[in-house]
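To whoever picks this up:

The parser on our side crashed when reading a file containing two proteins. I've narrowed it down to the boundary between the first structure block and the second sequence. Both blocks are reproduced below exactly, byte for byte. First block:
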Amino acid sequence: MIAIDMALDFVLEHQLFGEIWILSDSRSVVQYLDNWRDVSDQRGMDIFNKLKTLCNSSVLHLQWIPSHVNLKYNNIADSLAKKGTTMPQAYVEPLTYLELYSRRKAFVNISWRHPPTH
């Protein structure tokens, strides 16, 4: 959700209107945003306010894509995200429940795919 929020900030700041595709390999985030009536946390509300602003001048698409299946742009996005985690940040907001859940789920998925050797 942080990446989507920052991407929407970038689009609004640079006035990149038209057809906008938001692709995410986080199924839980896409489902969360798809159920917009149930969103109650601050980050979710911020995202929806930005989406509402963009709807006036853009066509928006939100789509889930599978991860780790050698999709060119997914691999590029993953490498950029890894680079971004090493950059200093002035302020980091506390993680929401959904963000914590997503990180824990990813960790569990990796541990099931690569069990420890005995």
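<<boundary where parser fails>>
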Amino acid sequence: MSSPIVFVTGTDTDIGKTFTSALLVQKWKANYWKPVQTGLESDPGDTKTVEEFSARREHTPHLFSPRYALQKPLCPLDAMRFEPEFDIQLSDFVIPEERHDQPLVVEGAGGIYVPITKKLEITTDLIKRLQETTDRAIKIVVVARSGLGTLNHTLLTLEHLSRAGLGNHIAGCILSGPKNEGNANTLKLYGANVLAEVGHCYTVEDIEAAIAGIPDLATIFT
């Protein structure tokens, strides 16, 4: 029996999207895939981050290799300009079906409107492409900043997904950073489903509490 897929996107850069993905991998005993990785000239990459995080935890995920790995810390479209041998096509992406009996966390490159191809196709188009390659259920989790600015960025991201025909695939958002009850409540007033609030984690106890605060996977797909 095939298990579901969760696509993780963000509203901004450096908001804890990879850390949140690592938490989801542990909570749901899931595998992990980063379809497009950039910035390898200055960072080991998000797959390595999830691997190192998981090495100290109960669950050891299978880590699928990125389909594309680029050096510059830029969006995929701009990173390709420094490596002209690459020409990313949406048709290159297929959900890895090995280990389909386990959940899969797919982490996008940046936010939902990040340019991926030279045809100016964006993360939204990638999600639609991945849907075409599998009969497994796919939900989208938006990682958003907890503090100032999150209302505009989060609501615009959710509105864009809905307008793109992906509204039924939105599981909700996870707020990353110091807890902000006011922002969480305002997002809910606008119909956003706040799945969890993940504060800064400094200790093992903090991490365990963050994992425990994430809802069970079954509730994401009800």
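After patching the parser it read the second block fine. The chain has a mean pLDDT of 95. The longest helix spans residues 150-166.
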